[in-house]
């Protein structure tokens, strides 16, 4: 005895046809999301680039200062002074570079907030347009159904 698997394709097509969905709303939402993602990625990459520049400069400056410390000295007290000078310069470099990192973080935060607020506004406007269109279509369908009676 062979059992044939029922084909529900036609049934699903009928159900989907009975409840039409406006795919443009989904397409617009996807495009908006992709645009926001692209902008956020740009912000993140710019921050990474700037952070890398800061780190590289910090390392180069530290190595240069360390080079001064390792030079041969004629007096033992000069070694003590060289180490003290290096520690002072390293602390100053740290303060400068941490401030630079803080500026990068602040810029990223501000740009991200701006992007998210703009995206929220766009999404709200799109949702309003979809609801307005659906209301118009539903009203038209009700009027058509009422007129047919």
Secondary structure layout:
Elements: H1 9-18, H2 23-69, H3 76-148
Helix pairs in contact: 2-3
Tell me about this structure.
87% of the residues lie in helices and 0% in strands. It is built from 3 helices and no strands. It has helices spanning 9-18, 23-69, 76-148. Helix 2 runs antiparallel to helix 3. The model has no long low-confidence stretch (mean pLDDT 86).
Quick recap of the structure?
With 149 residues, this protein is mainly alpha-helical. The protein has helices spanning 9-18, 23-69, 76-148.
User: What overall geometry do the principal axes of the alpha carbons give?
Assistant: elongated
- Strand percentage lies at under 5%
Termini Cα gap: 50 Å
**Average residue pLDDT:** 86
Features:
single chain; 149 residues; 3 helices; mainly alpha; elongated; 87% helix
């Amino acid at each position: 005895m062979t059992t044939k698997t029922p084909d529900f394709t036609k049934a699903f097509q009928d159900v989907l046809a009975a409840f039409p969905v406006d795919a443009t709303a989904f397409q617009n939402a996807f495009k908006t999301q992709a645009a926001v993602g692209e902008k956020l990625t740009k912000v993140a990459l710019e921050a990474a680039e700037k952070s890398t520049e800061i780190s590289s400069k910090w390392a180069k400056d530290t190595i240069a200062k360390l080079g001064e410390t390792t030079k041969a000295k004629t007096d033992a007290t000069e070694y003590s002074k060289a180490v003290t000078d290096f520690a002072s310069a390293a602390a100053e470099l740290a303060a400068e570079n941490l401030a630079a990192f803080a500026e990068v973080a602040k810029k990223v935060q501000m740009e991200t907030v701006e992007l998210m607020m703009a995206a929220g506004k766009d999404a709200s406007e799109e949702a309003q347009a979809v609801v307005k269109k659906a209301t118009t279509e539903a009203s038209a369908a009700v009027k058509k159904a009422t007129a047919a009676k």
